[in-house]
Specification:
This protein is an alpha/beta fold. Helix content is 36%, strand content 14%. It folds into two domains: 176 residues, Aspartate Aminotransferase, domain 1, CATH 3.90.1150.10; 242 residues, Type I PLP-dependent aspartate aminotransferase-like (Major domain) (Aspartate Aminotransferase, domain 2). It binds pyridoxal-5'-phosphate.
């Protein structure tokens, strides 16, 4: 009934296609409420939520430190249209953790952050070609959608993009420098930037092998192009220094988003001082926005950093819960003779319905059995566990998830996998 109402007024019944559950053939989950690690439907039924709004909710839904005293926060209004001290302070705090972001600018979404970073790279280099990776997702601006992962990888992402955009996009295989060299061979002198998720989270979870990111950096230098890290998922999920801190690297430009607002929309892009100087009013490239740096979202981002600084133990707690989940899934699979690789990094857990070692790229992700995932997704929903309705996505654990939530999840998985036979290619 609500689904019909949604379809009658919202395009496709949703604001973002993944929510329609098209990746698993439905049903679309209609959410009525949320608390901590749980989502609730209209009937008040509780679901252990591993979607976590596709990443932002590092502390689960409605952490008291984020939702307390919002009236006072709103007292001065939500948006000012002027630079303000708390915005400056937030930029300084971010730069202290991510020194590569010598100058930065606040925007509203990850899409906007990546789109702006690409504009800056093109303005700085005076070139237009962008190298990206199949299965990476950088938002829904034109060039980002070629061979994109996440829900754009399900299909239907090609229409509405001018044909000319294709000329300026080169797509390579993730974690494969030979593919980069091969794809860029004829265009290296026109290359403006290499854009990459330093740890991929939109074709399942893929941690690139040793030397991949460094190899990209070296090639960018050699070709006179810039290296852009899309840390929209990884910053704060992989610690306060993000994936670049973990890799000990300084990309030329970085995009941030999702987690930094604790659920409210705020994102940022930034990088080398000389590169960011292309932006007006200093330079001739333009980005801007009514809501960029608004005091409400800036204050929420401060709260997120405050919370992480006062609770450094959160990372270890989340990791322990995620490890428990991954361990339990591995045990279950090995008992059932299923050779699906379970990947866990920090608070992210992922597996695909695909036999053999963990996926390295989008070809591997596409080889997974979607029918098997769809049946599993529906069965888990029926057992009170909310999973992402697409196999390109991953399971996010938050500081609100407990060992008990994990054990409940594993019991639901056990009841499903022990009561169902699975595709024969999964047997070892
Ligand atoms: C790595 C990455 N970059 C960019 C984006 C786009 O962010 P937004 O949905 O806020 O526009 C996403 C969203 O999932 C993402 O995962």
């Amino acid at each position: 009934m609500q689904i019909e109402r949604a379809r009658a007024v919202l395009a496709g019944g949703c604001d973002s296609p993944v929510r329609s559950a098209w990746g698993v053939g439905g049903p679309m989950f209609l959410q009525a409420d949320a608390r901590g690690a749980y989502a609730y439907d209209e009937a008040g039924r509780r679901y252990i939520d591993y979607v976590m709004a596709y990443g932002p909710l590092l502390f689960g839904h409605s952490h008291p430190a984020l939702v307390a005293g919002l009236d006072a926060l709103a007292a001065g209004g939500f948006v000012w249209g002027a630079t303000h001290p708390e915005e400056i302070r937030l930029a300084e705090r971010i730069r202290a953790y991510l020194p590569s972001m010598e100058r930065l600018r606040f925007v509203t979404t990850g899409t906007e952050a990546m789109m702006s970073a690409v504009r800056v790279a093109r303005a700085f280099t005076g070139r237009s070609v962008i190298l990206k990776f199949a299965g990476g997702y950088h938002g829904h601006f034109d060039l980002a959608l070629f061979d994109a992962g996440a829900s754009a990888g399900v299909g239907g992402a090609r229409s509405g993009i001018p044909e000319g955009v294709r000329r300026d996009v080169v797509v390579a295989r993730y974690d494969d420098l030979a593919s980069v060299d091969e794809r860029v061979a004829r265009t290296s002198d026109q290359l403006a930037a290499i854009v990459v998720e330093p740890i991929a989270g939109n074709m399942g979870l893929v941690v690139p092998g040793a030397g991949f990111l460094e190899g990209l950096h070296e090639r960018a230098r050699r070709w006179g192009a810039l290296l852009i890290f899309d840390e929209v998922i990884t910053w704060l999920r992989f610690g306060l220094r993000g994936a670049q801190g973990r890799a000990n690297m300084l990309p030329d430009l970085t995009a941030l988003g999702k987690i930094m607002g604790g659920g409210v929309p705020i994102a940022a892009f930034g990088g080398r001082e000389d590169v960011m100087a292309v932006l007006a009013p200093e330079g001739a490239a333009f980005t801007g926005g009514t809501h960029g740096g608004n005091p409400f979202c800036i204050a929420m981002a401060h709260r997120v950093l405050d919370l992480l600084e006062t609770h450094p133990e959160y990372y270890a707690t989340m990791r322990a819960v995620a490890e428990r989940l991954a361990r339990g899934i591995r045990t279950l699979f090995s008992e059932r003779g299923l050779t699906y690789a379970v990947v866990q990094q920090e608070s992210i857990v992922d597996f695909k319905f695909r036999a053999g070692p963990a996926g390295r790229n989008f070809d591997d992700a596409r080889a997974a059995d979607n029918g098997a995932y769809a049946a599993y997704y529906r069965a888990m929903l029926g057992r009170g566990v909310l999973l992402p309705p697409s196999q390109n996505e991953v399971m996010f654990v938050s500081s609100a998830h407990t060992a008990q939530d994990v054990d409940e999840t594993l019991a639901a998985m056990r009841s499903y996998f022990c009561g169902t036979s699975h595709d024969s290619n999964a047997k070892s």
